[in-house]
Structure formats: C-alpha cells, structure tokens
Amino acid sequence: MAHGFTLKIHQTHHTIADFEKIQEYILEVLDNPTKGLHLFPELYLTGYPLQDLLLQQSFIEKYKIMLEQINEHSLGLKLDESKALLLGGLNYTFDEKGLPLKIENVIFELIPGKSLKKIYTKRLLPNYDIFDEKKYFTPGDECGVWKFQDKNIALMICEDMWPSNAHPLDPAYDIQLLLQKKKLDLDLIINLSASPYHLGKGEKRIKRGSEISGSLGAPFVYINRVGGEDEILFDGRSFLVNEDELIWEGKLFEADISELPLPDKKAPKYKLDDTSVLENTWESLFNPQLIKSGASHPILKPLDDVDCARTLAALKFGIREYARKSGINKFLVALSGGIDSTLVLTIVKLCLEEGQELEALFMPGYYTVPASFDLSEKLCKNLNIPLKILPIKFLHTSIRNAFNDSLSTPLEGLADENIQSRLRGALLYSRSNQAGSLVFNTSNKSELAVGYSTQYGDSVGALSVLGDLFKSEVFNLAGYINKKYNNLIPEEILLRPPSAELREDQFDEQTLPAYEILDGILEGLLSYRLSPKNLITLGFPREDVEKTFNLYQKVEFKRFQFCPIIKVKPKSFGFGYRIPICKERF
User: Fold this and answer.
1) Helix (H, G, I), strand (E, B), or coil: what is residue 17?
2) Is position 562 within any domain?
3) Residues in a beta bridge with 260
4) Same-domain check for residues 225 and 92
C-alpha cells in the first residue's frame, strides 16, 4: 500500500438540485481534519440527470451562489495541500446577455485555502437510451492526468471508460499514449460516475475497471451516486480494483462513506496495441437475453435468485425514493386476485417504512369469480393490510342502460370490457383523492409491449412497479419472494391462468400468444437486435411473431401516456424509449 496516501470515497445520496444539503456536506468535509483525497460522484454539485433544468435561470443562479459560498468558505481556511476534494459539477460559459453559451461536465479540485478549480472535462458524451448529453454538454479535448501528493492520477468521468464505435476516441488509450510520451508512471485512475442501474451492470463496471487498471498499470477507483430519479435508479456500488483484484465494493442502493489506503501499483498487463481485444462497448446493453430450451424456439432467460434479489432491492428502492420525494406516505393498489396486482401489493408492503400506510381496493364486476376475492382476502391477511371492497356491478349496469336508452345501441364487446376497467380506474382515483394516497400501477412489460391494457383503466397509476418485467419474470420474482418470506403469496395465485375477468371465461392466452413465446419475441424486438424475420428463423412460430409485432407497433399511443416505470433492465419503456406515435407500420 502507498504509505500515508488515503482515498475517502463519498458514495452520496442527495436529491437533484438540493443545493443547501450539497453545500452543507461539502463544507463539513472541508472542515473535517481527515486528510487525503476525497472523491465524489459525477455532477455531485447538482445531481443527475438534469435535462432542461440546467438551462433554467433560477437553477443557474442558485448553483452560482452555492459555488461562491463554497469558495468563500474554503478561502477562509488555512491552506492544507495534504487534502483535496474532487467534485463533479457543471462549468458554465455565458454570453454577453448572461445566457449559457457552453456547459461542461467537469471535475473540480477543491483544496482547503483555495478556490474551486476545473481540472478535467468529460470527453465522451453518451447519446443513447436514457442519455442525451450531446444536447447539453460540450466535450473536453484533453487527457486528464493530474498530480496530487507526488502521485500521477488519471481522471475520467463515467462514459470516458466506455469507448465504442459511437465515440471518436478512447480516453484510456489516449492516457496510455500520454504516459508513454512523457515517460510517466501512473499511480491511480479515478472515474467519477452517475451510472444508472440495470441487472448485471455492477459486474460489467468492475470488469471494465479491471481492464483499464490492467492496461494502465494502476489501481482504478470508481465512485457512483445513489438515488431514485423518477424511473431511473442509481445504485452506488462504487469500487476499487487493482487489475483483477476487487479490493472494495460499496453498498447497493445506500450511501457509503469509506476510507481506503491506496494500493501499490502493478505492471501493466496489456501492451498499447492489445487494447482492441478488450470488451467494453455500450452496444452490449442491447443483447437479447434469450437462451435455448427444449422447445423449438428460444425462451427468455429466467431470473435466478441473485437476479430476483437485486430486482426486488431495486424496486423497493425506487418505490421509497418516489414516495419520499413526492412527500406521500399513503399508498393504494387495485387488487384483482391475479399475479401482477398481488406482486405489486406485496413489494409495496415489504418496503413500507414507519408512518406509512398501504391499502388494497378490490372492485368486483359481473365476471369476477369467487376465487379472486378469496385469494385477495387471503393475501391481505398474510400481509396484514386492509382490504376495501368497492363493486363496479351497479355502475356497469347503469352505463349499459344509459347506452341503450340514450344511444339505442347496446354496450358490448371490447367497449363493454374497457368500460369495466375504466370504472375501476375512476373509483381507484376517487379513493386516492379521498384518502390522499399514491396509486401504484400494476401492468407488466408484456402487457405494455402489446397494449393489453385499457387506457385510463388498468393503465392508471403514479408509478409502474412491474413495467420493466415481462410476465414470466413476474412469476419468477413472486416465487422468489415466497421462498424468502415464507409463502406470503398464496400458492394458488401463482398457479392461476392469467385473466382480465372482463367477460365470461376470459383468459389472456385467448388473445395473446403463450407468455413463454410472447416474452421471448418481445425481448428480441425490444433489444433492437432481432427483426420478425430473425425471430422466425430462431424457431418462434410465424403466426405468433407476426401477431406480436403488429400489436407492438400499433399501441405506441398507449405507452406514450403511461406513467413512469422503475427501470431495472438495459432496455426499458419510458425515459430511454422514444418512438413516434404517428408513423407508417412496417
């Protein structure tokens, strides 16, 4: 270990633009006698993602005031060059009218007794999926090699570690060339990140960090933020690697402040011309998760227990963050006796905190079978939450009569099915208004993909808990919860054939392909890697592929008006999915 050189990792959890608490924490660190190198996440000074918020004058003014106050406080301290804070932030350049001319995503150096100093600008700006940084930021054009306490330290910000054919350069490779040209040895590589969560992301980050460490011959430390920003989750899991050795990893979905000694550097494992073999491209985000099965077609890779544990942790964190930042402590779920609403209710119950309340609302109609109520009641007893019953039968009859009397047209078929769902949506939100509660949506990703939901009916809700899980994965997660929590969910619910119960003897597979087939087709389509032709070649039935693709294409209008979805997969509906509503079908 490098004698006397310490790293202080600040894996922080702050709300976007909470300048008061951000400043308070920085001043606390400045005043603390702890020496060494204090490392904070990307855009720590503002939060991330900012979108158009960073263009608003009120935001800019408050940000500038905070920087001025930090500088003033630091300049009032005795100079101490044994301590430095590296802070992710924004660097604005303004025109003569005071409007932003250029905005950079940067690393600031803050040494007690000195002012903030920009020392590095992010070079690679991601512009795919949920990212649109080229819209806002100007990229840097210089390698980041910075000196502190006689140590040569390479600097990166998030995407700088992920070169691909989407970018014109590789910052790690450029650092190698610079070190070779100046005959420098590197002591440490730092990456300040605001990296969103999805399943498998943590392992991928560590692998890439190890590759960079091995190619540059120095330990690699990665600092990530924690937070739930609407549908995007930031999981933390900061880490320190020294080539293939994982020395430390931060907590999942929790703030984590840790002090670590700097490991001794090792000789580089890779030559300059070997870097092309490293596997590090962003395109791997969109590899469809399909595996071979005994059937003639592939199937969606099931979630194993590790996947389920992390997915459950992510969903609980997303719910808690949304509730906390919305300032709401009462929650409402429409319960049907089916697997989706059952799982949502169970997950919300598992993440309830002191002072929070949860209620289930059961709204039977003409086609609701007795088992649906029995199982809903049993579930609520298991979860120890109140079950309210609000039938729609009489309202449904009144609307049917109104159509006959006023329009001389019977309400039947799809219109009659949808009015039942919309009645439930109206009653659900009336109860929400009455009780001051937040409604959780219960739709899954399979339904969203093919439009198997009613607009303003079962698609309502403030936040979608399952909108990034296919139906088969809903069953995976429910089974895991039963293993972990002693069969909270009645087994009969897991065994029931899925049904909307909007007509006599209705089952999902009368309208849709079997979920084992449907989910595999959808995973291929939504990864952008597989076309209908590819899917048929892989063995999926032509009729099912064509039917699924047709449904998927024609229901964009429903997805456009859907609520935020907690993102747990590489490719999700919502923030990173932008498709025109009005377009030619193909």
Assistant:
1) coil
2) no
3) 7
4) yes
Using only C-alpha atoms, the chain has a radius of gyration, in whole angstroms, of 27
Residue 308 sits in the same domain as residue 258: no
What are the tens digits of pLDDT across the range 10-26?
Answer: 999 999 999 999 999 99
CB 85 within 8 A of CB 38: yes
Q: Which two tokens stand for residue 264?
A: 């001794």
Residue 545 CB neighbour total at 10 angstroms: 25
3-class DSSP assignment, residue 36? strand
Angle at 179 between CA 174 and CA 183, to 5 degrees: 155
Beta carbons of 298 and 290 less than 8 angstroms apart: yes
Residues belonging to the chain: 586
Note whether 431 and 482 are same-domain residues: yes
Distance CA 93, CA 192 (A): 22
229 and 321 inside one domain: no
Q: Tell whether the model's pLDDT for residue 273 goes beyond 60.
A: no
Q: Compute, in degrees rounded to 10, the torsion defined by CA atoms 460, 465, 469, 473.
A: -120
Q: Which of 110, 196, 108 is nearest to 155 (CA)?
A: 108
262 and 329 assigned to the same domain: no
Q: What angle do CA 29, 188, 123 make, to 5 degrees?
A: 85
Q: Which residues of 133-145 are buried (b: 16+ CB within 10 A; e: fewer)?
A: beebbbbbeebbb
Task: Give me the number of domains the chain comprises.
Answer: 2
Q: Where are the alpha helices (DSSP H) in 187-338?
A: 201-216, 305-326
**Segments in 386-443 forming alpha helices (H):** 393-402, 413-435
Q: Is 115 helix (H, G, I), strand (E, B) or coil?
A: coil
Report how far residue 119's alpha carbon sits from residue 88's, in angstroms, rounded to the nearest whole number: 10
CATH of the domain at 255: 3.60.110.10
Phi, psi angle pair for 192, to nearest 5°: -90, 125
240 close to 252: Cβ distance less than 8 angstroms = no
Closest listed residue to residue 545, CA positions, set 520, 571, 573, 579: 520
The residues that bridge with 86 in the sheet, in sequence order, are: 39, 109
3 — pLDDT class (breaks 50, 70, 90): low
For the annotated catalytic residues, the residue numbers are 42, 122, 158
**Residue 441 pairs with which residues in a beta bridge?**
464
Measured CA distances, 392 to 41, 322, 397, 422 (Å): 51, 30, 9, 10
pLDDT in tens, 229-264: 999 999 999 999 999 999 999 999 999 999 999 999
Rounded to 5 degrees, φ, ψ at 155 are: -115, 140
pTM above threshold 0.90: yes
- Give the domain extent around 463: 304-509
Chain-wide mean pLDDT for the chain? Answer: 92
- C-beta neighbour count of 487 within 10 angstroms: 11
Q: Quick one: which of 159, 156, 103, 104 has its CA closest to 126?
A: 159
330: CATH: 3.40.50.620
Assigned token pair, 249: 């990893």
Cβ atoms of 129 and 576 within 8 Å: the answer is yes
Q: Is residue 517 part of a domain?
A: no
At 93-133, the pLDDT tens digits run 999 888 899 999 999 999 999 999 999 999 999 988 888 99
Q: For tokens 């899925």, name the residue.
A: 498
